[in-house]
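Structure first, sequence second, as always.
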């Protein structure tokens, strides 16, 4: 017998199911149509992350007005990735732009400090890759490593590549192999391929956005 879920719990369940369909996780075959249905139901229950994911999905299908609507609804609920995405809008005034950046950065920092590996990785990605965030490289590297140490697969892969792109000494090469091996153990097919190239050819294609 199923217990009745609160609207908030049901929205969270639908969002997680949508993520599984969207990215083909946990043995579920990727299916954007099913993902969209789940995200839409969760979004109608005011789930900010689902609204953001729905905005990305419909935007990829060319439905820009619909994407903008859900993105702004997510941002109005204070969701960091939506705030960050809106900050890229070239039509914003400097004051609006700075406000979105400050709010997004505070959102990410709160969740990274709380120990969430996914958001530690995403925050590191912003600090290391987006000049708008005026990121401190050491701070970005620290959050990337914190995420990798919790076995977040994408962080392990990214950290491994960062070590391999550094000045090649025995230490950095060993660290690169260590983190790429951990990513491979966690199921990262690209990390497996890169490790094979590294052992066979002495180098790999370090794709920083994997």
């Amino acid at each position: 017998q199923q217990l009745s879920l609160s609207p908030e719990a049901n929205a969270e369940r639908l969002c997680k199911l949508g993520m599984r369909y969207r990215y083909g996780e946990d043995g579920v075959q990727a299916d954007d149509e099913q993902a969209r249905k789940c995200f839409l139901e969760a979004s109608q229950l005011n789930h900010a992350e689902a609204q953001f994911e729905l905005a990305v999905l419909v935007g990829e299908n060319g439905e820009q007005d619909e994407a903008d609507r859900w993105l702004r609804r997510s941002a109005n609920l204070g969701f960091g990735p939506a705030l960050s995405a809106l900050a890229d809008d070239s039509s914003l005034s400097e004051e609006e732009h700075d406000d979105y950046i400050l709010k997004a950065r505070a959102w990410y920092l709160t969740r990274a400090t709380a120990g969430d590996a996914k958001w530690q990785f995403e925050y590191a990605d912003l600090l290391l890759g987006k000049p708008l965030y005026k990121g401190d490289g050491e701070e970005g590297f620290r959050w990337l490593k914190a995420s990798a140490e919790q076995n977040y697969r994408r962080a392990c892969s990214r950290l491994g590549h960062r070590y391999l792109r550094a000045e090649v000494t025995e230490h950095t090469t060993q660290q690169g192999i260590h983190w790429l091996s951990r990513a491979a153990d966690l199921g990262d097919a690209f990390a497996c391929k890169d490790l094979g190239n590294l052992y066979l050819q002495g180098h790999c294609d370090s794709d920083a956005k994997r």
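Margin note: The chain has a mean pLDDT of 88.
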